[in-house]
Design brief:
Protein name: Prolyl oligopeptidase family serine peptidase
Radius of gyration: 20 Å
Oligomer: single chain
InterPro entries: AB_hydrolase_fold, FrsA_esterase, Peptidase_S9_cat
Helix content: 40-55%
Domain Peptidase S9 prolyl oligopeptidase catalytic: 227-279
Number of helices: 17
Strand order of the largest sheet: 1-2-4-3-5-6
Strand content: 5-15%
Number of strands: 8
Order of helices and strands: HHHHHHEEEHEHHEHEHHHHEHEHH
Structural class: alpha/beta
Organism: Paenibacillus sonchi
Largest sheet: 6 strands, mixed
Distance between the termini: 63 Å
GO molecular function: serine-type peptidase activity
Length: 419
Amino acid sequence: MVDDQDTKVAARLKNKIFFERDDIDFTFQWLLSFMHCGGVSQGELFKLARQIDPNSITSYKNEFEKEAIKVEATAEDSLKRGHSFSAGEAFIRAHSYYRAAFYGTFPHEPDFVRFHQKSVECFRKALDAKSGQIPHEWVEVEYKGYKFPGCFLKAEHSDVPKPTILFHNGGETHKEDTYFLGGQAAIDRGYNALIIDLPWDVCVRFYEPEATAKNFPKEELHNVYRATTDFLLARPDVDAARLVVSGMSYGGAKTMVHASCDDRFAAAVPNSPVYSMATIIERGMPSFLRGSADEAAKQTEKMPYTGQALFAGSVWSHGFDSIVEWHDAAKEALDVDPRDVKCPLLSMYSEAEHPEMKRQAVETYEKAPNKKNAIFFGTEEDGADLHCQINNLPLSYQVMFDWLDEVLDYNIQTSVKQK
């Protein structure tokens, strides 16, 4: 059987609020977190939760798709009638419901591409419909003929240089998710934000099929990360002295890599700071590393279905055949020494994290050399115990941006007064 700790790594929570199954309830709480910037409606989401048969992946996908189609239709109707703000709000919810359906879909299924395309389409329509409230540009970072798509979220409608955050995606996070998981919070506080799909991200193969982890080993990964920094620093609206790198979950590992190989950041906020992804796999998912790739695949089949889809999608996105290959590549490309992160670093982690993630978060804080480093622990008492404080993003962002404002000597109110 799959070790209990292996399934817990996929669950990432302590307390359930609706579903008995850990994997479905984590998805439910993850979607609830989108509510703080209009990504879901409370009524729609709880209605869906009541209608879903948690033991049926077909029921899960069908209910979210039906809701997505319905909400998207209302968005199109509002757009045709000239109500762009309402259309934007509905499109962003339709995006989230297509996105949730994708979460339970496997790479070999026809819906895998379709759900992704629909979620991206609705997200784009949402931001474009609300361009007056959310200044943004659809951009691409080019590297050796590859084009990596992103969205540059602007703090304001001008080219005045602003502090800017480059957000790395998590293990199942799309650039669109990162709008909810940091992008909106950034522009609310007068920061620009780049959300983007890069090598080692789950969605990049939809745009560049050959841009897999297999084809982006350590040196090439460092190069494309530095090229992304180059892209930002070439913009007139980016304050070069206030450039930040951040990321949640697997994005915390990518943040550590980027901050260790590129000295142009004024601050780094990994949540959680994983400095050895290979060790996370070894200690958090040991049963998948016993035996051959076929045996690892059979182990995965014993997981809950969203866990199976997550692992299958991760293997696909990296261009591998099994988790075993992912482990070997991660050991070569994603292991860093925390002492190589010289800029100020805020280490963020939560009570429900796997013990190895907690250990690495504390050790990163202790070993990274900057005297301005800080650490934050999300607890059950604060309602922030879920993986990456996903159940209390307002508190998480309060901690993150208050620290950044102080480290960068920046405050949106002061900045406005000085104009």
